[in-house]
Amino acid sequence: MSDERKTPEMRAQMTEIERLRHSAAHVLATAILKIWPEAQFAAGPPVENGFYYDVDLPHRISPEDFEKIEAEMKAEIKANHPFERMEVSREEALEMGRKGRLASLGDREQPSKFKIDIIENIPEGETISLYRNGDFVDLCAGPHVMRTGNIGAFRLTNVASAYYKGDEKNPQLQRIYGTAFKNKTQLDEYFAMLEEAKKRDHRKLGKELEIYIIDEDVGPGLPLWLPRGAAIIEELEKLAKETEFAAGYQRVRSTNLAREALYLKSGHLPYYKESMFPPMEVHEHGEEDSVAQRYYLKAMNCPHHHKLYAAIPRSYRDLPLRFAEYGFCHRYEQSGELFGLMRVRSMQMNDAHLYMTPEQFESEFNAVNEMYLNYFKLFGLEKYLMRFSTHDPTKLGQKFLDEPELWKQTEEMTRNVLKNSGLNYEEVPNEAAFYGPKVDVQVWSVIGREFTIATNQVDFGQPRRFNLTYKDKDNTEKTPICIHRAPLGTHERFVGFLLEHYAGNFPLWLSPEQVRIMTIGDDAALVDYARKIGNELRANFVRSDVDLGTDKINGKIQRAEQMKVHTMFVIGKRDMEADAVSVRVHGKGNLGAKPRAEAIAEVLLSIKERRP
RNA sequence: GCCGAAGUAGCUCAGCUGGUAGAGCAACGGUUUCGUAAACCGUAGGUCACGGGUUCAAAUCCCGUCUUCGGCUCCA
Q: How many angstroms separate the CA of A195 from the C1' of B48?
């Protein structure tokens, strides 16, 4: 293995399963060399669910080659070679590299170019070690399992491409992915789990449950919401509006596009330009006008909100001021990055900008974090991580606003608040927004997919650029601090996440179709009774539908269950005569008959309380 | 954007090495009047992603484009 970025301490912590998988990567390389001796290897680490090895090879490895490679791997495992560690000097290692002897089965004409590069990047004084299994020798810090025979069960999973060291200026390598476990049972369980995960994929559920579509004529990454999807969005928006109202936010509204001048002022141009749709050129004074105005689709709401702040003179007594908007933003994401609802080009953000004095920062920041935690509780999210993203001082003026002092101050301030809050956080350099440090919230859906679901950003740049001020107690003009926050992220990503989180089995309050009423037969009196109940539900804003057709009741239930309708009212003659309904709940089955009024009251209460 | 793979009816998919497109479900019409996950019969539905080429003949082979997927980079 050859990932030089990890320290020796980190490697020592490699778990048993990681050692096994990393060893499997060496066996993979061994097998590939037996078939294609000219293969050049780069890095082959264990990853979350398996391992990979990056290889440079003229032959394009495809899944059809897997059988052949796996057969060689099996032979190597059966041979049960020991993994032998050897420590060598830097010069010895380089000499072997020049002979093509690293990550190979013997000397070769071509030097082991990636391995040589890796050696050259190992800091002075650090031990350089090699590992051998059979004829295969690789530059590797280890550790490994004792023998190749310890690799219990494995399978190659897919091929992808990756740039050497993840830099798009470097050559592209073929990345062969595989996974390995102690035994076949665990391997089978893993693949069974993957099958389960596929069923919960938001793209699959989004289609099956009629949530959204992405149409070629509309454009890639531009989802359209079907009524069932829009219903979920409406509920989320209602939740956000209630929560924000209670927390002292005020709602504002802004446009979807603006002149270039606005984004020059905000700094989006040039710092964010490649993520924005190209401008529209408009000749405002007729065809003969030689000067075109450039308009951009907004990528973020902040510049618009800053204008709203600036529109009226502000006093320290007005602060904190909290402007909220579910604004539509458009970003020109690279085509290869689009991914279902999770990565789109048009998004509706649960956005708000909070303007405050420095003294108010801590309490405002904490209040925002508390809002996050309340939401997580409501949705039953247990695993989350706050990623505190800071700037990289070497990229001031390029990726980040050139304000070294302000970066230092705001990062310090944010770090302190995070520390005092006791939240689970991790600091990552070089990932801040261009206008200030940020805290992204990572969550994991039940199928293990990781998302940045929400964001909480400090902005010291824009308030100055927009000349935002407030009159302080001492009669001087001061610049407020601004926090951008979006606890529910964007509708697109959040709904995508919820689909996977709930596997489409939404709680009643979020359910696209909350109640479906179905009759046993289509007797006229029964149809009337069902319609009456439907009207009563709709009068109480319950999303309900009636299935009055001539199908058998089993068929009606089947269709409702497939659409994951939360509650079903089954109505036959017996129910009608007793002014009752038979209640069936998705996932729970038949709950028996209940008086009509009681059944409806229960539905209304569950929705009102947003029960899980 | 880059590398690789894929695109057949509304959905899920079949269609072998070229001979002119098929099933199930859904839809529609009829029959059935039924108690908790699919009643029965029939009808209709496709520029095989799009454009070009090779061929007597293309869903099938070749080239280009679009889109999606697996990754890289990036992010809410």
A: 29
